[in-house]
Write a structure and sequence with these properties.
The complex is a heterodimer of chains A (about 650) and B (about 290). Chain A has one domain (about 5-50, about 65-575, about 620-650). Chain A has 28 helices and four strands. Chain A has helices spanning about 5-20, 25-50, 55-60, 65-90, 95-120, 135-165, 175-190, 195-215, 220-250, 255-265, 270-280, 290-295, 300-310, 310-325, 330-350, 355-375, 380-410, 420-425, 425-440, 445-460, 465-485, 490-495, 500-505, 510-530, 530-545, 560-585, 625, 630-650, and strands spanning about 590, 600, 605, 610-615. Chain B has about 290 residues and is mainly α. Chain B has one domain (about 5-285). Chain B is built from ten helices and one strand; from the N terminus they run ααβαααααααα. The two termini of chain B are about 35 Å apart. Classes of the chains: A mainly alpha (about 650), B mainly alpha (about 290). Strand 1 (about 590) of chain A pairs parallel with strand 1 of chain B, so a sheet runs across the interface.
Chain lengths: ~650, ~290
């Protein structure tokens, strides 16, 4: 059977089974686990089968047809009606308005296509393939299958805990997993579709799925944020449809591949419109607030939105357009928006105290970096973009899932509450530390991507280096201070939770560990395997668009060996540390920390001049420099100006 | 890797602590003279470190010791990468890794003083990081490479192209050398309100380790100054040492500044001097 069709249809079928909710709880859970594993496995098979003649042959037999066109149109109308239903139910006028605009455009497109086909007889429209397969879409499939699958498994354990913590809520778990699997199905559709009409259809399904998932809790805040996400993504969707319309009118085709080719030849307007859709989906400024609002959803949803689905669909599309964007003003303005987003989101993250909020801003910043690379569009920039997509998906998935577990154990999402977590939840803390290190620290491969970003920028648009350089400094600051908070033990964490470490950790379900360990392992493995990923996947992908030879990217001479050496050293380091500490173990004595007073108890209090004193230590949040409001205003204004200038020239 | 690269790497490994220690000794004598004191003998830093190794080690927990050994380990690696002529940008990334081990160790120690010291050290890194990243960027614009061995082959001294970047780098060097007015996190002056800040909870062999790492670090930093003058080695060496003397003068003639000033001044200097220099280079090189 065709693996691509399987990957799209299988999660869909599973979602329908889950929706019926007829299976007993245990079997339902088993079904979720097994089907997630199947998805991961089949995605991996795709990776090994991709070049086989059979796969290619099967693929090229699937053509677009008139029946499909009509059916798709029917689906799109059905989606629009669904949106109308919810918009009117909750009186969200703007959603209804944008939905109407999109519907009118879709009808216009449909009429245009019918008349176009009538004029040309059997149009070239129907000689276009629906799907395609290249190394980039395989990478995306692996991310969706493995990380998305692990998140679905994790959700099994998490949602049980979630409903135990939120007794007031109705248990809608079957509906939850129904949407999750539809989401995964649509994501596969997005990364395999060459036909823009299909792509747009899957695109809209991801929008709607995230709408339902964000609004899962059903309280006013969740619903408002869900509609915000819907609204912003619909605006992007409108751009998408106009793009298809324009491209079809000017060339009679609806193929993504041909769109990129046409873009390279100078047809920039549809490229710009699709990039615009990508920007809104990947939560770039000025649209970024929808992703922050999405925090209200249960943690697996955040993990899914941030790591393997939704926002990754946005960056995927923009990276796909990169060859057409290279060296054009549309590309430069896309890159500028990415850079602005990276800078402001990194700055804001410093002042955030809520763990999920920091993660959200860090996602937005990293997506900005990817968009920046895609806008630059040179081979090395796209290389960096794809690498960041991979590393970010793994680390961010791990971080969100770990924070979700910690949240249920310490009943707080605040970073300040994670004081001394390493003593109370040791394994989880190590996973968190690995995830954070994976986001910004050498020798994790993310740093190699950053190296490539800097190189790509110097060679093309060096002015954009400044946001990157300052944003990177901020990135370092907010991650390390969080790491410090996990490590540092102060009064509160010492006195109350002493010795409960194993107890607290035992309450974490096996489903959750089942997702956390592989993700932690993958964070390290992805670094170890990154030269392979590059040579086997990313460079062959680039070779097609940039007529490069594999290995000619000029990354490999010294840096490869250097990274291998560094990695080896990281593994040698514990030995060194062990030798050092055991060499002096005889003269080492454990004592309470210095408190400038006589210590009392285990050093969590001291005798002050009048009474016993406790101490608390808080992280720096430096709100006077890095306040959310100021930097958001800056980011949104700057990006809107960039968009406005772009639109002015588009005319 | 060429034989020269291996030799210079080995030389760094062996000589850096010696040179670093001697510089620290000179530093103490010069500072003493500036304060109208006689000062210790030049070998005093070595005596101190030797004595620290023979002392009892008081720690709050064992993880702290593990983390602090990461500082020395990765600092030496960073220096080795630099002196064997690898990629300058990656050298800076590894440098950051080493610094972060020190910060994490201080966090782990859990005393309020070392905690605030760690926070301030982190703030200092955030302050100097943009400028430090602009150095390889400026050098790349001139030489078209990040590779240090290739940079050294460039025939004109880089200072002619990168005076602004150099000034910016000097500004942040004050932070890196832990000199007043930017010694917020830990200082050898008696006016520190954070006890010994970052290193409050380190004693005996651990403290010795920090000291040695600092020697390696200083030699590496002087090496980075040397890069700007590489084609004329003697000028490079003399200027690097001369600038260290300047840092001592600054150290002894300034009071400590607040973090706001540290952050603002470092970022503005990076933007104006470093950024201005780089923009001019772009305009005139292309």
């Amino acid at each position: 059977m065709n693996l691509i069709l399987f990957l799209i249809l299988f999660p869909f079928v599973i979602s329908l089974i889950l929706k019926t909710n007829i299976l007993p709880d245990g079997i339902q859970k088993a079904l979720i686990v097994i089907s997630s594993l199947v998805l991961a496995l089949v995605s991996a098979m795709l990776c090994f089968n991709s070049t086989s003649a059979e796969t290619i042959a099967q693929l090229s037999q699937l053509f677009f047809s008139h029946t499909q066109q009509i059916t798709l149109f029917g689906f799109e109308v059905a989606l629009a009606i669904l949106i109308y239903f919810f918009a009117f139910k909750h009186e969200k006028i703007w959603v209804a308005v944008i939905n109407t605009v999109q519907l009118i455009l879709l009808i216009a497109l449909e009429m245009k296509m019918n008349s176009g086909v009538a004029a040309e007889g059997i149009s070239k429209l129907y000689s276009l393939p629906i799907f395609f397969l290249d190394q980039f879409s395989i990478i995306m499939a692996l991310i969706i299958g493995i990380i998305g699958g692990l998140i679905a498994i994790y959700a099994n354990g998490y949602m049980k805990d979630f409903h135990a913590h939120h007794k007031e809520m109705k248990d809608k778990r079957s509906g939850f997993f129904f949407i999750i699997f539809i989401f995964l199905s649509a994501m596969y559709g997005v990364v395999f579709s060459d036909n823009l009409l299909w792509l747009h259809f899957f695109w809209e399904i991801t929008t709607l799925s995230s709408f339902f998932l964000i609004g899962y809790k059903g309280d006013t805040e969740s619903i408002n944020n869900a509609f915000k996400a819907l609204l912003y993504n619909l605006i992007g969707g409108v751009g998408f449809v106009i793009g298809i319309f324009y491209f079809f009118t000017s060339s009679g085709s609806v193929s993504l591949d041909q769109l990129v080719t046409a873009g390279k030849a100078g047809l920039l307007i549809p490229v710009a419109l699709l990039a615009f859709a990508g920007l809104s989906k990947s939560a770039q400024m000025p649209f970024s607030s929808w992703l922050l609002g999405a925090m209200v959803a249960p943690t697996p949803v955040s993990a899914l939105l941030h790591s393997s689905t939704m926002v990754k669909a946005g960056v995927y599309l923009v990276v796909k357009l990169a060859p057409a964007l290279m060296g054009t003003w549309v590309g430069i303005s896309t890159a500028t928006i990415g850079a602005i987003t990276f800078l402001s989101a990194s700055m804001i993250a410093i002042s955030r105290q809520n763990a999920k909020s920091v993660l959200a801003y860090s996602t937005i910043a990293n997506l900005g970096l990817i968009i920046l690379c895609a806008g630059i569009g040179s081979s090395i920039a796209v290389w960096a973009a794809i690498m960041i997509i991979i590393f970010h998906a793994i680390s961010k998935g791990l971080l969100f899932l770990s924070v979700g577990v910690a949240e249920h154990r310490i009943d707080s999402r605040e970073i300040e509450a994670m004081d001394g977590l390493v003593a109370n939840l040791p394994k989880l803390s190590i996973l968190l530390l690995v995830g954070m290190a994976g986001m910004f620290l050498a020798p994790f491969a993310m740093l190699i991507s950053k190296w490539a970003v800097i190189k790509a920028l110097i060679d093309s648009t060096a002015l954009l280096l400044f946001p990157i350089v300052f944003g990177s400094a901020a990135t370092l600051f907010y991650w390390v201070k969080w790491m410090g908070k996990l490590l540092a033990q102060t009064s509160s964490s010492k006195s109350e939770n002493k010795g409960e470490g194993n107890l607290a950790e035992k309450a974490i379900s096996n489903y959750e560990w089942f997702a956390l360990y592989p993700l932690g392992f993958l964070t390290i493995l992805s670094t170890l395997l990154f030269p392979l990923t590059s040579i086997l996947m990313v460079e062959p992908y680039l070779a097609k668009d940039y007529s490069l030879e594999v290995g000619s990217l000029n990354l490999w001479n010294e840096n490869l060996t250097l990274m291998v050496i560094l990695l080896a050293l990281v593994f040698i380091f514990p030995i060194f540390a062990k030798i050092f500490s055991s060499r002096y173990s005889k003269v080492t004595r454990i004592s309470a920390p210095y408190l400038a007073g006589a210590n009392i108890g285990n050093g969590n209090r001291y005798q002050g001049s009048l009474q016993e004193m406790k101490y608390t230590i808080r992280n720096y949040y430096l709100e006077s420099f890095f306040c959310e409001k100021g930097w958001s205003i800056f980011g949104i204004t700057a990006s809107i100006i960039t968009l406005a200038i772009t639109m002015f020239f588009l005319r | 890797m060429s034989t020269t690269a291996i030799t210079s790497g080995l030389l760094y490994l062996v000589l850096a602590p010696l040179i670093g220690g001697l510089i620290a000794g000179m530093d103490r004598i010069l500072s003493a003279r500036m304060q109208m004191r006689v000062g210790p003998p030049i070998w005093q830093p070595f005596y101190d470190v030797g004595k620290l190794f023979s002392k009892e080690q008081l720690v709050v927990n064992h993880m702290q010791t593990t983390l602090i050994s990461g500082l020395l380990f990765f600092m030496v690696i960073t220096g080795l990468l630099f002196f064997t002529g690898y990629d300058l940008l990656l050298v800076i990334f590894t440098f950051t890794l080493a610094s972060i081990f020190l910060i994490l160790a201080a966090y782990r120690a859990g005393s309020p003083y070392s905690f605030i010291g760690a926070e301030r050290e982190l703030l200092q890194i955030m302050a100097y990081e943009p400028m430090v990243l602009l150095v390889p960027i400026g050098i790349y614009l001139v030489t078209k490479t990040f590779s240090i061995s290739e940079i050294l082959k460039f025939e004109t001294p880089l200072i002619f192209y990168l005076p602004g970047v150099f000034i910016g780098f000097l500004h942040v060097l004050t932070i890196k050398f832990r000199k007043s007015p930017f010694d917020l996190s830990s200082t050898h002056h008696a006016h520190q309100e954070l006890v010994k800040g970052l290193t409050t909870e380190f004693s005996g062999p651990s403290l010795a380790l920090i000291e040695i790492a600092h020697w390696y670090e200083n030699v590496l930093l002087l090496g980075m100054i040397y890069l700007f003058f590489a084609p004329i080695p003697w000028v490079g060496v003399l200027l690097a040492l001369g600038l260290y003397f300047l840092e001592i003068v600054i150290d002894n003639s300034f009071a400590r500044m607040k973090w706001e000033f540290l952050l603002k001044s470092s970022w503005w200097v990076a933007l104006i001097f470093g950024g201005g220099n780089i923009i001019l280079l772009m305009l005139f090189k292309h």
